[in-house]
C-alpha cells in the first residue's frame, strides 16, 4: 500500500446490472481484500450527494458519513456536492468478524 497512513480511497465501482446486488458483493470482496490482505486501517470513498442508492449500499456495508464537500464538482453549468464516507478496520471487524488488525499482521 502506498499511503503512509494505511488509508485507501475507493475511486469508483461501476455496475451495469443495477438492483441485483452485484455492486454490493463486489464492494464486500474489495473490503475484505483491503482489510485482510493489504492491512488497510481505513477505507474511504466519496459519492455524489444525489446518489441515494449508492449511499444506502455503502451505509448498509458499514461505511460512516464523514461530511459533505459542498458543490465540489462542476457539471456543465451547475455544481454537485460529494458525500465522504469511510470505514475503519475495527468497524469492519465488528460487522464482518474477520478483519485482521494491521498491527497483528506485522
Automatic annotation (TrEMBL):
Signal sequence range: none
PROSITE patterns from the UniProt entry: GNAT (PS51186)
PANTHER family linked: GNAT-FAMILY ACETYLTRANSFERASE, SPERMIDINE N(1)-ACETYLTRANSFERASE
Domain N-acetyltransferase positions: 1-90
Keyword Transferase: yes
Listed GO MF terms: acyltransferase activity, transferring groups other than amino-acyl groups
Classification via SUPFAM superfamilies: Acyl-CoA N-acyltransferases (Nat)
Top-level taxonomic group: Bacteria
This protein's UniProt keywords: Transferase
Protein name stated in the entry: GNAT family N-acetyltransferase
Protein's organism: Paenibacillus sacheonensis
Upper taxonomic lineage: Bacteria, Bacillati, Bacillota, Bacilli, Bacillales
Amino acid at each position: 500500500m502506498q499511503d503512509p497512513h494505511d488509508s485507501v480511497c475507493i475511486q469508483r465501482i461501476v455496475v451495469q446490472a443495477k438492483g441485483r446486488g452485484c455492486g454490493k458483493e463486489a464492494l464486500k470482496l474489495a473490503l475484505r481484500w483491503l482489510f485482510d490482505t493489504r492491512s488497510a486501517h481505513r477505507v474511504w470513498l466519496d459519492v455524489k450527494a444525489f446518489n441515494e442508492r449508492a449511499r444506502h449500499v455503502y451505509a448498509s456495508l458499514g461505511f460512516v458519513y464523514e461530511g459533505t464537500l459542498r458543490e465540489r464538482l462542476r457539471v456543465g453549468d451547475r455544481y454537485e456536492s460529494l458525500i465522504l464516507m469511510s470505514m475503519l478496520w475495527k468497524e469492519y471487524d465488528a460487522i464482518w468478524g474477520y478483519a485482521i488488525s494491521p498491527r497483528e499482521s506485522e
